């Protein structure tokens, strides 16, 4: 079988295991990138491989050469870690399903992640960001129905991101049927296709209801039941949401530049500062392990130390 055929079989394998579409695309891209490197690497030339290498041609040196190339290019540790996970998963598949007798990726070690804490907004900065769109709309007072619908949609997106602390992919994947207006909750499909229920408050509820009254303005044949729509009527994309957050966040020069994930980090930190239980925050965020959630305790402690240094006369 050719490399392309094996990779295609691997893609089918990932789909059969309910791996998320985002992870599948990333893994396939990483594996394809590796084989492109392997076909042109010094190791390939040493073995006198003049055509595309087969899976059985690959050894540990090919993988190490690829990782060195990534490091030389300045790839982040998190990116390298994902790429290693991808090739480990791929070669494990080849051993189990394609008759490969040796797994060349088995000895690869995943680099430790940087201990950098996430950047978060102060509570007032977050409140200003999510309400800034409404203030701009009030000032503009647009009579164009499409503009009015876009303003309402953007306001609802910003409010919902901060109110629920969902991932951007979870927000863009929401349908109208996922919203329980009576209980002010949404049903989110998270990583690993795991569902969870997440509450939202009155400001988000108000913004969402306003958007839904104007949603029909943007509806097209491609809309389906999608909660948030793009200007052409299809489901809004993650890139549009990121641009939206960056655009309104940039209006405050004192605030750090964040994206949707920064709003997620901020909401989690603010809930912890407000007395929320760490286990409850874990459930709200959809973290599979407590270790992912515990980073917010470090963020809160860092903020406490900064406040102490600024406010205490003997700091």
- State the distance separating the first and last CA atoms: 68 Å
Please tell me the CATH architecture of the largest domain by its name.
Answer: Orthogonal Bundle
Mind describing the biggest β-sheet? 3 strands, antiparallel
- Largest beta sheet: strand ordering: 1-2-3
Say how many strands there are. Answer: 3
Regarding quaternary structure, what we see is single chain
| Overall form | globular
Summarize model confidence as the mean pLDDT.
87
How many domains, as an integer?
A: 2
Number of helices: 14
Name the structural class. mainly alpha
Low-pLDDT windows of residues: none
Strand content: under 5%
Order of helices and strands: HHHHHHHHEEEHHHHHH
Radius of gyration: 23 Å
CATH-assigned fold name of the largest domain = hpI Integrase, Chain A
What's the CATH H-level superfamily name of the largest domain? Intergrase catalytic core
- Give the % helix: 55-70%
The CATH top-level class label of the largest domain? Mainly Alpha
